[in-house]
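Internal tracking record. Fields below are filled automatically when a chain is submitted to the structure queue. Please do not edit lines marked as system-generated. If the sequence contains nonstandard residues, flag them in the REMARKS field before resubmitting.
Queue: standard
Priority: normal
Entity type: single polypeptide chain
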Amino acid sequence: MVQATVANHKIPHKGDEQLFWYGELESVCKPCHDGHIQSSERRQERGLPERVVIGLDGWPLGWDGIGQDRPQRWGFSIPHYVKPSAVPVHLVCGPPGAGKTTYVRQNSKPGDIIIDFDLIRESLGMTRENSKYRDIRRVLRRRDTIIRGLHEASGCEAWIVMLAPTRAERREWKRALGGVTVHKINTEADECKRRIALDKTREGIGVRESLYKAVDRYFLKQAMD
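SYSTEM-GENERATED OUTPUT FOLLOWS
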């Protein structure tokens, strides 16, 4: 028997800070983690069934190698198969506790599409401290479906709430969706943590501690950008 030495995210976080800190973990051995688990994750993150043929570069040759179009290779937490949005998109980014949701509430109009992990989780009847594998997966599926649906939206604007601490990630969102306006909420780290401490929806075991770490991680990435 091989000793379990690696903490594996049951749902691949793909750079998504909320999923990195909230995602459910499991103990696995390193050979399993680096082998079939990561291989399966690479297929799943592209929405590919196990039967799809993968080329030498690690990307699909097509469904069963018959020559179907390859999916777009978006990075970070941008879902694959995203096409340019048919409506203006506002990317509201900043650390946890920065006030992103409040900013969207104050600036969006009735009928606008709001894509916010926490709001989607609440709309599905989940509390903010909920970190169960199947529930987070439901939230991410719903979020990705809404983002993909922007290609056919009309008569409104869309607001996407993300951490997106680096210019590279923000550029990738622009490349994926087209007409994106970035709104960067520049709240200081201490103030973010103060707000998190006062937020009664963050009272679950370990929730605030995870968010404090996420704030530190955000500003570290920003400083290295």
